[in-house]
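REVIEWER CHECKLIST
Item 1: Sequence provided? yes
Item 2: Single chain? yes
Item 3: Sequence as submitted:
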Amino acid sequence: MKAHDGMYIDGAWRPAAGQDVIEVVNPVDEQVIGTVPAGTAEDVDAAVRAARAALPDWAATPPAERAAHLAALRDVLVTRADEIAETVTAELGSPLKFSQAVHAGVPIAVAGSYAELAATYAFEEKTGNSVVHHEPVGVVAAITPWNYPLHQIVAKVAPALAAGCTVVVKPAEDTPLVARLFADAVHAAGIPAGVFNLVTGLGPVAGQALAEHPGVDLVSFTGSTAVGRQIAAIAAGQVKKVALELGGKSANVILPSADLAKAVNVGVANVMSNSGQTCSAWTRMLVHRDRYDEAVELAAAAAAKYGDRIGPVVNAKQQHRVRGYIEKGVAEGARLVAGGPEAPREQGYFVAPTVFADVTPDMTIAQEEIFGPVLSILTYEDEEDALRIANGTVYGLAGAVWAGDEAEAVAFARRMETGQVDINGGRFNPLAPFGGYKQSGVGRELGVHGLAEYLQTKSLQF
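Item 4: Structure as written out by the authors:
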């Protein structure tokens, strides 16, 4: 167990204002593996002041130079990929191979993408007798979640820095250790003091102080819809910009012409990935009534192969929450075909990979985000019925469509009320915009659309 000291403010690790600490627990064995300072409003104020002081010079830095800094940061992350993966595995419980491929690999790719975008983006354009100038929005508060702890930091920090903004990050209290590694990487990459700052702490204390701070121009938050509403209300009082990536209840629509076995197996894998702790997970599988029984059998068999190899959920509270949803599903009449509420291990925050059949659209498990390894399988009569069910939640973050004919799948996907749809198992694209409809959020991350979130637009008439 290591006690980590200080906050990264103005280019250096500085003593925290208070004495309280947050314990970081390994969810596999429930042992404390480290502590970090519990930041206060005083720490937040120091970080925001440092970011504001650094803003004029960083905003005036030529885009090509900002791109070089981001490329250097990507290169440092590459050299520290193993340490990043091991740290995420320790504090999140993710299996090491998944941590290496996703928790370390994806942020490296995203950082690289913004190094390229910073160098090529048209920060000025001519239209008629005007020059349209895109300039940084200012100081960014980045409040990040625990489920993809480094990816969500990089997905906010990299475009903000590319745009010329300065940043204060408040990472999730469950997974702050990889955030500290990232701060060290920023320092090693030679990014100027004050451009990036890190304050660890609890959401209701440090997170709220950061969202409320008058020196912050934009709040970028990823997390629950409930907290997103609170942040939006705070921002509205100061008329400051927000970018919110919130919850999801994504539909995996398997049309009758699809390769059923492939669609089901990939769909189950999607839900079990990261122990189900993915906001965009396809947690509702929609199957035509004529193929429903076969799909249920395939899904149950696929889930059974995972056992407890998917890793635990992040903490005891999350374990209790997910098991409570499973119990709710049984109580409301859904049929368990794999898993259940009983923990598969005596130690650790594990939840059994769970599959429900006979789920109706109005059931709690078909409407609310569970954030665990739980799949609900629903049946539909025809495509219009499938579309009604797919669009029938308050969320709209992601989804999938499978069909024998790609054009058929695309036509269905175009009618889905959601921000991103995978067609026949389409691969993740770090350049494609990611974000939600309805209560899944406001704004987009990744690629050029993610960069645009951190820019103000000014027109000059001649």
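Item 5: Key structural point noted by reviewer: Residues 138 and 165 are 5 Å apart (CA to CA).
Item 6: Recommendation: ____
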